[in-house]
Amino acid sequence: QRYLGNTNFYKPGGPLICVIGGQEALLTNFITEGPIVEIAQAHNAWIIYPEHRYFGMSRPFENLRLDNLKYLQIDQVLADVAHIIKAVKQNQTTLENAKVVVAGFGLAGSYVSWFRLKYPELSVGGWASSAPIDIKPFVMNYRKDMGKTIKVVSGGAVSYTHLRAHET
Known about the structure:
Layout (H helix, E strand, L loop, with lengths): L2 E4 L9 E4 L15 H9 L2 E5 L23 H18 L8 E6 L1 H12 L6 E5 L10 H14 L6 H6 L3
Parallel strand pairs: 2-3, 2-4, 4-5
Antiparallel strand pairs: 1-3
Helix pairs in contact: 2-3
């Protein structure tokens, strides 16, 4: 699984900010400009940004047929984030005792809240921006948006009709 890092503002003793990836390929601007960078600069932080499984180049399968989407689960996404945080801290001795803050935007903002609940020992705080907090699985607009996302990622291999047929 890919991730990006920005060490430009890091000083020993500073925290590690993990920007949780959302429904897109890695976007370098998430770690080079904007509020996360301002926070990193103010707190001498190291930033990492893992790519969400199934998006960008972090795809477990070439073909994203419906049966290959069984590993696109929230628990697995959160486990990916936990794994990357542990691996970075283990491989970068200067980060061994660094406090971790997780951050996310949109759906990844929801991941921040769920990550803090599932892995409280791995982070001391989180920042969730524009996070949906009351997701209803059968809300038409949300389902259509997710259907479009999956269709783009799969190269058209999954249609909205497939999603409707398998939602119950």
